Amino acid sequence: MPAASSASVRSSLERGKLVPVYYLTGDEEVLKDELVDAIVDSAVDPSNRDFNLDVRSAADLDGESFHALVETPPLLAERRAAVVRNLEQWRKNSKVWHVVESYVSQPSPTTILVLVHGAGQTPDKTLTGKALHIAVPVPDHDVVREWVLGRGKQLQLVIEPDAVDHLIKATCANLSELAMELEKLAAAAGSQPVGVKEIENFVGVRHGETLPDWVDAVLARDIPQAISLLDVVIPQPGVNGVRMLMALGTALAGSRLARASVDRGSPPRRIQQHLSDYLKRTRPAGMGSYPSEVGRWIGASREWSGAELDTALRLVYEADQQLKSTTISDERSTLYTLLLRLSARRETA
User: Fold this and answer.
1) How wide is the angle at C-alpha 191 spanned by C-alphas 188 and 192, nearest 5°?
2) Model confidence, pTM
3) Quick count: other Cβ atoms within 10 Å of Cβ 175?
4) Which tens digit of pLDDT belongs to each residue from 203-228?
């Protein structure tokens, strides 16, 4: 059975429809946390939540304590809720897994159980078959933008459209960082509209000096500009060398796909569709709007040959390994050397 979407689950909750066991997986922890809150809000009245809600980490539970957690009857209420996070902390084939799998086959009618698997984990087949499985993937740009507008509305924050886009770029679309920045903006701006200038002042990242701007400079083969941005981008909140290389590697890989399609003689419309389908299927983190990313990759494919992109991807991989293989690494030097090697490759070509 395919996984349910967050939107469909929220719609059911609004209609008062609950299921005994929810199983959340996926890579976006903020959205998973928000969905857990929505389930709990629907399942347990705030007035008796102190008695009828338990939130536990899997590491603190064994088979016996899990059984007690889910079989405890509600107190002066129709039902209770139990949330168990970080299922990956249980060893596979451990006794507690057998207890969990037995329970989801015949759950208590008075307990709403929410099981949460951490990011990057493979969903458990038994749970996906017997619980309501909700996959929460990394959101695309449109979802992030909608989320920012919704959170801003909750904070009574008025954000201009250009400012929303700049804030997303400045935080690399990281929802945790976006949440913190929105809280700060709401406290500082009050009822005043927030524009790009306010984002630059409060967040400390100016327009044209974000991580995506650095990637754009590399794709455009403007190495002097990419080098000049190193000292600006690296110190930004939430940015480090590995994250920069991941963003660059994703863009180069997309450009390589575009270049391969061009070399095969595919018509432009088919290339655009192919790249759009790839983005929808893989949903890489930190992307801008999919149409803009597709245009970005197609534009880069005109600047690079297939062989050059293959070499660039190898050099990015080597730089990534260098940063990850030592505890003493100068991120700027590693990235600077990478840019010089990319420049040298172009001159040789």
Assistant:
1) 75
2) 0.78
3) 21
4) 888 888 999 999 999 999 999 999 99
